[in-house]
Prior knowledge:
Glucose Oxidase, domain 1, eight-stranded mixed sheet
Amino acid sequence: MTDQPTYPPKPRPGDRIAIVSPGFAGPGAFPLPHELGLRRLREEYGLEPVEYPATRKLGATPAERAADLHAAFADPGVTAVMATLGGDDQITVVPHLDAELIRANPKPFFGYSDNTNLLDFLHRQGVVSYHGAAVMTQLGRPHAVHPLTDASLRAALFDGGAYELTEAADTSTVIGRWEDPATFAREPAAEPATGWHWHRPDRVVEGTSWGGNLEILHWMAAADRLRPAEQHAGGVLLLETSEELPGATEVFRMLRNLGERGLLRRFPAVLVARAMAWSFEHPHDATARARYRAEQRAAVLRALDAYAPDTMAVFDVDFGHTEPQLVLPYGGLIRVDGPARRITVTY
């Protein structure tokens, strides 16, 4: 881990962007959102997607997926890398990665969920990456890319510099099935967003971001993949949960384990994403969704009270498994201004 993280050079319209599946090869199972995402990359963002052998290969081995990543980062004609989707076994890919190759060829990488593994790996190499914006989910969103997602993604992809995050006025939870073409012809149903909830907003914290999907962080801890807690001192912790909808008790237990490692208290600020709160397996109505989110917020506060009582927290921030989704720098600078209730990231 280097002391000064590197922001890789930005792509420009007309450049080639690598499309990879480091986790689940979602395009092999659900081509409709993938093809839509590729078309938008070409027509709306001016980038030329380049796929690799395992991008659509269901059951690709960890070594095959690592080979795609090596090819993408080593290719001088590719200026950015984006994941198609998440998954649940990217932890098996990381041991195959060539750290020296990737350090020598830093490029902006975009992904979230299971890609927390790769985001952390890049952070270890001193390379800033981006938590958010997968091909099948944000770019393959029915009807159109959400305007807030679009604005933050364009800033992260092309602009750089400071970018103030905007609270969403509404949020979508229920998305149609990807195998149904009718899903993509209509705007997803939305409900009013409740805004950000601030806890101990009595200071300004500016630090390097780390974290990601809580379930994946829990697995990484079990596999002894986390760096020593003291290396995170002064940073901004990112926490979000997935469509598997872990219960409040489990969320607390996972955070308790991180607290027992001495990790939580190292972060003077934490951003907690709005919980997804709905899935086809758990089709919660609006009341149940609100209750699930409130219970998860209480679980996080319980863990912070026990292990990081002085930490400032912002809840229901629009990143991770949420719609809209804001892209956040991973390993880059985030400024959390409690008194002003503002969050500014550096892309």
